[in-house]
Design goal:
Blueprint (H helix, E strand, L loop, with lengths): L2 H9 L4 E4 H22 L10 H5 L5 H4 L1 E5 L2 E11 L2 E9 L8 H11 L4 E6 L4 H10 L2 E5 L5 E6 L5
Helix pairs in contact: 5-6
Bound molecules: coenzyme A.
Coenzyme A (COA) binds next to α1, β4, α5 and α6.
Length: 161
Amino acid sequence: MHSTDRRAAVRRPAQELHRLGDVMDELRGPLVDLEQRVYEASSHYDTGPWQAENFARHLPGKRELSLVATVHGKPVGFVIASRRPEGAHIHRVATDPRHQGTGIASRLLAHLLARTPGIVTLICDPRNQPALDLYARAGFRLTGTTPEGKLSLAAGTPLHR
Ligand SMILES: CC(C)(COP(=O)(O)OP(=O)(O)OC[C@H]1O[C@@H](n2cnc3c(N)ncnc32)[C@H](O)[C@@H]1OP(=O)(O)O)[C@@H](O)C(=O)NCCC(=O)NCCS
């Protein structure tokens, strides 16, 4: 076994990935609790934590594209995305503070990018260095700045029309 694989095998508990639409009803409360823990532990995540209605709100392709990582049946991370004409937009990425640095967000992003043709976009606070590092490793590049001073990032290749 490669030494990096051995480290991962020792440090990383078994994670399962689920489509949001498959676990939304069962895990709605635990997802809101997870979001609250992430919000309280993070400096530049958002102005407030998402509530149940934010997770449940209908957006095109959201239930199919969004992914939830669980360990022993409990959510430990998620990526929430919806379909856009050019590909998809990521609305939220988060990992439980107790599980950060074990590759969960990287895995969620890699799965989303692998199953989404076109360009995947997101917006990130420029002070959120852990998130910017994560996105750079996942292949995102800077595409601009919003009027509010947030960074626009994108990954993937344009769809042929
Ligand atoms: C940003 C965030 C989503 C990253 O999630 P994460 O699951 O910790 O990310 P990963 O584990 O995939 O990668 C993070 C680090 O762990 C390292 N890592 C990955 N797998 C590892 C393993 N098996 N063992 C040790 N380290 C590992 C990565 O190399 C990376 O290290 P580095 O940044 O020090 O170079 C998380 O910090 C978070 O939830 N932040 C608050 C919410 C937020 O800001 N979201 C983004 C809004 S734009």
